[in-house]
């Protein structure tokens, strides 16, 4: 192991075993006893409070207050960090290699009993991970550095249509992970306003000599959600929606990304929402049909009628499909 690894190992051994002699440390780490003395001196010079006691029961130990510093994690903290690292893989965390190295170091300095406990708690904790995307990871790393350093970037960006690639200069204020995709919230020099951009549509990023100052109180997630769900133009556009159903279904409504922020009142079996009229008739009927009979609309009547019409259209569509000869369906697929 490297010098740094051996010195950290000494700290962990003194923390877990309270007191050890130089000979014991030498045998445990398989290094010369003179090397142990040099490492102890180096640790003391760096400010680590190591106490040397002479005599029959002597040895090296750490002052009690030092064993409580954040460098040393208890078993629950170690388990939480390792499981959080596994979970972060799902999002395409841009510093995966560094995270894996940190987890490896954390595991390396656990005793056998701790290691067995950690293995039991992580063996059944899994995340379905998307295919690795090295290009996206590099983009996210550069964006994160720009946010931290306040550096303006040049960007080649593919618009939603996919037909046009634009070059822009942006001041990245923050990156946001939302429903399986990464976004950057940035001041766009072309539009002269804040915008959000899909990170996977960024074809290239270029460093510039320009800098910017990120507002200290700015929240990228708050901006993103606010513009994802625009506010209605006025109170006259709001509609009161009452839903009744099972506790689980009502809970799903209250946690939904679009409906959750509109909750006015709720109980175990009922919830009152204040929605803009357009969303009430355009989106909510599709949401309701996915819950079948576990949700019931109490009001408004317009929502009941719109949901019923949608259900009838779907019924007619699938009934026609069932009656259509198999040969005709095969011809349609060939076309």
Automatic annotation (TrEMBL):
InterPro entries: CBASS_pafABC_assoc_protein (IPR051534), HTH_11 (IPR013196), WYL_dom (IPR026881). Pfam families: HTH_11, WYL. PROSITE patterns: WYL. Residues 8-60 form the Helix-turn-helix type domain. It comes from the Bacteria. Residues 139-205 form the WYL domain. This is YafY family transcriptional regulator. It comes from Paenibacillus allorhizosphaerae. The lineage of its organism: Bacteria, Bacillati, Bacillota, Bacilli, Bacillales.
């Amino acid at each position: 192991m490297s010098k740094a690894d051996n010195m950290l190992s000494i700290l962990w051994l003194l923390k877990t075993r309270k007191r050890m002699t130089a000979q014991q440390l030498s045998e445990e780490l398989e290094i010369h006893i003179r090397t142990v003395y040099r490492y102890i001196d180096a640790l003391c010079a760096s400010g680590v409070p190591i106490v040397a006691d002479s005599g029959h029961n002597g040895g090296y130990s750490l002052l009690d207050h030092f064993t409580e510093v954040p460098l040393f994690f208890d078993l629950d903290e170690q388990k939480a960090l390792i499981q959080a690292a596994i979970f972060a893989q799902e999002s395409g965390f841009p510093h995966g290699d560094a995270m894996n190295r940190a987890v490896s170091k954390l595991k390396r300095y656990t005793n056998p009993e701790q290691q067995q406990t950690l293995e039991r708690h992580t063996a059944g904790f899994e995340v379905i991970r998307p295919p690795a995307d090295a290009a996206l990871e590099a983009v996210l790393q550069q964006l994160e550095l720009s946010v931290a350093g306040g550096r303006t970037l040049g960007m080649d960006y593919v618009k939603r249509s996919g037909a046009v690639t634009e070059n822009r200069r942006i001041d990245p204020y923050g990156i946001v992970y939302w429903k399986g995709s990464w976004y950057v919230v940035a001041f766009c020099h072309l539009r002269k306003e804040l915008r959000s951009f899909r990170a996977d549509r960024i074809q290239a990023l270029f460093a510039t000599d320009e800098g910017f100052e990120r507002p200290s109180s700015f929240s990228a997630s708050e901006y993103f959600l606010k513009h994802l769900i625009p506010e209605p133009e006025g109170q006259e556009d709001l509609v009161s929606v009452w839903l009744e159903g099972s506790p689980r279904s009502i809970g799903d409504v209250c946690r939904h990304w679009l409906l959750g922020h509109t909750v006015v009142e709720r109980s175990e079996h009922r919830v009152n929402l204040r929605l803009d009229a357009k969303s009430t008739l355009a989106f909510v009927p599709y949401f309701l049909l996915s819950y079948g009979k576990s949700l019931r609309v109490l009001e408004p009547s317009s929502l009941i009628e719109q949901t019923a019409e949608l259900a009838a259209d779907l019924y007619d569509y699938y009934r026609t499909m069932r009656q259509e000869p198999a040969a005709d369906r095969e011809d349609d697929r060939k076309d």
